[in-house]
Write a structure and sequence with these properties.
With 276 residues, this protein is α/β, with parallel strands linked by helices. Helix content is 42%, strand content 15%. Strands 7-6-5-4-3-2-1-8 form an eight-stranded mixed β-sheet. The two termini are 28 Å apart. The structure holds zinc ion (ZN) (2 copies). The site of one zinc ion has 4 residues, from loops.
């Protein structure tokens, strides 16, 4: 069977996925995918292992990344494709973001102590289980201690955006993210555009910053969502990407690996956009 499907949005244990980069590659080979992009959050550390695991097969592993950005719209994610993993600037920026994430979690634990809900930092680390530490782990630590009756309650009462123990996150702005992806040799794409309160005019502004594509095909996109994004791609000459946002074979965000895909031509468009 000819491999033709490409899944351009996949996470591994290098960030918050549950399969190692090698396990992701063997699952993708089982699914007969022509190519995958490993797009872990704020890190390039899984790429070498994934590429090594795919060496000698007919499947390409595109070096990618998913970078968080802040804006008036809330959480925005950008995908970078054909990133050079050895680029010092992007590595430095991602490293600073990871450090800031730990500092932010510590700050929230301090604020919770002031609210008479002391937590052991070791417990929060244990719950993170080697993943980048964040609010879900603090919420689970609060639940374990019996301070809340659900992790939802932890967010609503304490660590959500308007909660008394909330600490903001250090993030790059959209033009900074796009510039960092370009500086690392990559093509910049806006991930799951409808997850934030972003407006069409914001997307158009991002194009002036150098945005090259939109993630059109995504697990929860309705046919109308897809049409709106395809129209934008046509009007502004953007690449229409897509992927599963795979995190785990069951029970986590995203869809099964390979279940949301684009044709192999998309890979060639990204390669050209990245100037490779
Ligand atoms: Zn995302
Ligand atoms: Zn993702």
């Amino acid at each position: 069977m000819q491999r033709s499907r490409v899944d351009l949005h996949i996470h591994s244990t290098a960030s918050d996925g549950v399969l190692t980069p090698e396990e992701v590659v063997s699952l993708a080979l089982e699914q007969d995918l022509a190519a995958i992009a490993l797009t872990d959050h704020d890190t390039l550390s899984g790429i070498a292992a994934a590429q090594a695991a795919a060496a000698g097969s007919e499947m390409e592993v595109i070096p990618g990344v998913e970078v968080n950005s802040e804006g008036a719209w809330g959480d925005l994610h950008f995908l970078g494709f054909y990133i050079d993993p050895n680029t010092p600037l992007l590595q430095q920026q991602l490293g600073a973001m990871r450090l800031a994430r730990v500092e932010r979690a510590r700050r929230m634990v301090q604020e919770l102590a002031k609210l008479d809900m002391p937590l052991d930092w070791e417990d929060v680390q244990r719950l993170a289980a080697g993943q980048s530490i964040g609010r879900p782990h603090i919420a689970r630590a609060l639940l374990e201690r019996g301070y809340v009756s659900s992790t939802d309650e932890a967010f609503i009462r304490y660590i959500g955006r308007n909660g008394p123990a909330y600490a903001p996150r250090l993030r790059l702005t959209p033009p900074e993210v796009i510039e960092a992806i370009h500086a690392a040799g990559g093509a910049a794409v806006l991930a799951h555009p409808f997850h934030s309160g972003i407006q069409i005019e914001d997307i158009v502004r991002f194009i002036s910053y150098g945005l090259q594509g939109l993630e059109v095909y995504y697990p929860n996109h309705s046919p109308e969502d897809v049409q709106i994004l395809l129209d934008l791609c046509g009007r502004y000459d953007l690449i229409a990407t897509g992927g599963s946002d795979f995190h785990a074979p069951w029970g986590k965000e995203g869809a099964p690996l390979g279940s949301v895909y684009v044709p192999a031509e998309c890979v060639e468009q990204l390669r050209q956009a990245a100037g490779q």
